[in-house]
Amino acid sequence: MEINQAHIIITGAASGIGFSILEELLNFDCKIVAADKNAELLEEVTSSHRDKVTPFAGDLANPDKVDQLFDFALHSLGSVELFIANAGFAYYEQFMEADWSHLELIFRINTFSPIYSLMKMGQLNSGKRWKTVMVCSAMAEWALPGYSVYSATKSALHRFAEGYRFESSENHLMVVYPIATRTAFFETAGRHIPLPFPVQSPETVAKKIIKGILDDRQKLFPSALFSTVFAVNRIFPFIKRLYQYIEFRKLKIWLHTDPSC
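RE: above sequence
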């Protein structure tokens, strides 16, 4: 898909992978609505680019706010050809308590909001060329201890995409599967949590996402190492189990060393 002349919405744009994607998009002749629930940070990162970027502050776990985002973008840009669903968060925890609201919140933003936005894009662009990019996670394929609920939200996106591609005759969806990325994502997931291995920079992920959009990719694994290990695991499936066990040991150590967990 061509990015020049496109009108774009990107969510979770104030930090992390979303901010790095936003910076990459500024190299193109396009117009952007940058959305994030952190209004203060969003204002800070977009204030010097108002010729190309219009901020929208709101919590996209709320479907009414997603509708408002689309209405705002149509009013500001006139059309939306590219939607980058990047907003999301994780819990790092040993899942034990029955808490419906705890579950609902993460599924609303990580799963329901991207799928609902894809449906909105289809309604908005009937008969036109458009694309939605969903930033998923490598944990959709390899669920990790401590991230069981987060992995479930991303696995749901992964399975949805598999079915949707059979239902749609056009290449409207690209799903991205980053590994752990050096952002504030992990700071919000829990206190002093151990990072999974390996780790990528958000700039690397953003550059590969932009290339994937230009190349009209359907699936994108930004980490060559993960792609290789994922393929080798088909022959030697103990690799995944060993990796999960290592991450399980990290979780147990974390639970015993941080009393607040």
